[in-house]
Amino acid sequence: MTEKIRMEVPLVEMDGDEMTRVIWKQIKDILLMPYIDLKTVYYDLGLKKRDETDDQITVEAAEATKKYGVAVKCATITPNAQRVEEYGLKQMWKSPNATIRAILDGTVFRTPIIVKNIKPFVRTWEKPITIARHAYGDIYKNVEMRIQTKGKAEIVFTSENGEVTKEVIHDFDGAGILMGMHNLDKSIESFARSCMNYALALKQDLWFSTKDTISKKYDHTFKDIFEQIYEKEYKEKFEASGIEYFYTLIDDAVARVIRSAGGMIWACKNYDGDVMSDMVATAFGSLAMMTSVLVSPEGYYEYEAAHGTVTRHYYRHLKGEETSTNPTATLFAWTGALKKRGELDGIQELVDFAEKLENATIQTIEAGIMTKDLAALAEGEKKIVNTKVFLEEINSRLLKALE
Ligand code: NAP
Ligand code: MG
Question: For the chain, what percent of residues have pLDDT higher than 90?
Fold first, then answer.
């Protein structure tokens, strides 16, 4: 390499906490800065800085993502009572991911990174399955009641001009439980568009599932909105790309996904997505091999790893011990963001570089050189290395690919 790859528009870089913050710097030092004239606007979302700025730094980082279009984020601590004490925080700040999601609005897509020597638990799966989880409403914004006596439960809607609509939920004979939940057309519409845009970007089929046969208004509205948006705005584009939009019932979807070869985007309602993303991640191997990207309806992208800050490893690192923490998902957050930047700015070199870096990572693992978490899952010969050696092994393969 004689000259570094030039960038035009910067990436929004959101640094984070603990072990992933250590890995973040190693990735930049070993695999990015030597090859790219890396341009970023840097936001430190480390907990200390969030506390110092009353969490304004997180808001600014999200706003910058709207300005520049593509962000890459390191894992961050979501404070709980123990963290408030550990870091002496002014208050228990909200999850940065929730703050960013509230500003960008959008859908989170999670995709496993596949290597040959780690076989998915489901034998037929050959290609990754991406879960697209709706991130608003349903049981996550519900109202619940514990009923202790006999009585009548009703659902009541009072319109802004005072019109009242009522339905009986149940005449209770005795103790029981109640729940009210909602969603918004606007949120479902942006969910649909995010999924359809992402399917076009990846040139993969889009599946969507609900339980519309039982939930004839609630789930049926999800189905209808997807259908209308598809017919009006996306049908021709899908046909031109040779991909399909496919709707089915959630139980049918589960059965079909298990028998499939993978390679689709599976859009799920909020709760279904919560459950199914853990199933898919586990069945493919490990959270350390799962990438995550938030796609806003306006087409802003924020890439990250699906795992947290790997606290237990960090405490060992602080004691001076070497750790074998898997940097793959964090590295793929960078390559995902660089590829998108390259695509948007028409810098093919940047796209090619990111692809070579991904391939070099997969080759390293497939050659049996891996971190400890993967050794427990992989078949064949393997050599466990620490994070830094793993990144250097990737670098030696990357150098060959760049020659
Ligand atoms: P975690 O950081 O994902 O780690 C849980 C365990 O999974 C680790 O202790 C480790 O197991 C294994 N693991 C996860 N990632 C790994 C990797 N890259 N390489 C090797 N092993 C890996 O989850 P957590 O311990 O529940 O959460 C820690 C902190 O992360 C919390 O403060 C939480 O708020 C935050 N968090 C942030 C995000 C985010 O920013 N997106 C997401 C989730 C959690 P062993 O210890 O057995 O090796
Ligand atoms: Mg969950």
Answer: 89
Same domain, 256 and 317: no
Q: What is the pTM of this model?
A: 0.89
- Write out the residue range of the structural domain in which residue 167 sits: 143-180
Nearest ligand to residue 82 Cα:
1
Question: Which residue owns the Cα nearest ligand 1 atom 10?
Answer: 310
Q: Find how far residue 315's CA is from the centre of its chain.
A: 26
Q: Check whether residue 175 and residue 188 sit in a common domain.
A: no
- What is the C-alpha separation between 325 and 310, in angstroms, rounded? 8
Q: Which residues, judged by CB distance below 6 Å to any ligand atom, belong to the binding site of ligand 1?
A: 75-78, 97, 287-288, 304, 307-312, 325-326, 373
242-290: pLDDT as tens digits: 999 999 999 999 999 999 999 999 999 999 998 998 889 889 888 899 9
124 and 250 assigned to the same domain: yes
Q: Is residue 291 part of a domain?
A: no
For residue 80, report the phi and psi dihedrals to the nearest 5 degrees. -125, -175
Ligand closest to the CA atom of residue 305: 1
Instruction: Tell which atom from ligand 1 comes closest to the C-alpha of 74.
Output: 40
- From 228, 253, 284, give the residue that closes a domain: 284
Amino acid at 291: T
Q: Which two tokens stand for residue 20?
A: 């992933």
